[in-house]
Input
Amino acid sequence: MAPLCNRLAGNQFRFGGRAYSLPSNTEDPLYLHGDGWLADWQIEDQSPSAATLSFGHDGAFRYGARQEVRLEGKTLVAKHALLGLTKSLTLEYANRSVRVNALAPGYVETQKTRDWWNSAPDPDKARAETLALHPSGRIAQPSEIAKAALFMISDEPPFMNGSCLVVDGGLSILQHA
Output
């Protein structure tokens, strides 16, 4: 699989009437992928909330990828920025025995979540729809997220570094199926 440093053709794309430019990554420190990782992502299709990107490579190893990317406003950008920051800080501080990881919780039953349900025209329906998004039919309790956070900062996973621990009850699996 090619690393995530593949880029859009010309390192630019348009979305929502705005032009975006991405930095070019022209070095693969491990060079395990031949030159296929240099393949430019092409935009196949885009809408106000999503874009379909693809690339192909016909070198020594033949492979390609096609990915739908949902662009749902500031939240998505912020989440990806935090993941990038996690990886960047990992590279910067790993040689000093500092571990940097991210925690990605799904829905959690907090007062904010209950307020959100109660602001809907039909609060019971809003709650049921949220629960139905999860394979288990429920959302996390705050203590379940806290236990995951405690695990991450404990000495139990000493080699866990630059990772994102997804604690969403399987929600992301269904959303990407």
Q: What stands out?
A: The domain at 74-175 is CATH 3.40.50.720 (Rossmann fold). The chain has five helices and eight strands. The CA atoms of residues 134 and 171 lie 5 Å apart. Confidence is low (pLDDT under 50) at residues 1-9, 23-37.
